[in-house]
Description:
Blueprint: H1 10-28, H2 34-42, H3 46-52, H4 56-79, H5 86-102, H6 105-113, H7 115-118, H8 127-144, H9 155-171, H10 181-192
Helix pairs in contact: 1-2, 1-6, 4-5, 4-8, 5-9, 5-10, 8-9
Amino acid sequence: MRTRPTTPTPSELREKILDAAEQCLIELGYSTRLHAVIAERAGLSRPTLYKHVGDQSAILEALFQREISRFFVVLDPILRGRQSQLQVRFVDAVVFAVQYARGHRLLQKGLRDDPEVVLPWFTVKAKPMIELGAQLLTPHFERLFTPEQLFGVSPAAISEWAFRIIGSLVITEGIVDTSDEQALRGFVRSLLSIAFIPQPDVHIP
């Protein structure tokens, strides 16, 4: 007896659309008229695309938000690592984030071929990402820092400071070769020496 195919939920449809959009952008670029290509590849009508995701701008925003959420999922184990030294763990997280971005095909495609589309998410349109980062990272910082260390400095401010470092290292070239992990690690440590992160001898119990 044949079983009827199950109807995908709205959430599943949205993920299917975003998966197709991601492949289209990587293969064809950010200037591609996504609805026509996605409709063909995903076997969906254009009205369905508009209903579940929206216009081209909304698709790009949804993809960006999805990738940021995925990034924080893989960053979580770094922040929960066994390394007891707070400064080392913070450096680990920044280095991981920069190298993760360097290896991200969708992001690198945009930075290389269509920077005018991608760069605003790190600059003039960065506020939603900064707010999401603060929301997800604040519990980590509240756990990692003592109340004395956080006196006068909010976890959200630390999160935003980290975002600005990471974003700058991802989108701009400078004196440090971000493909060289040791050079990148040394550079981030040097930044911490002039920042508000506690000194290297501070340990987490």
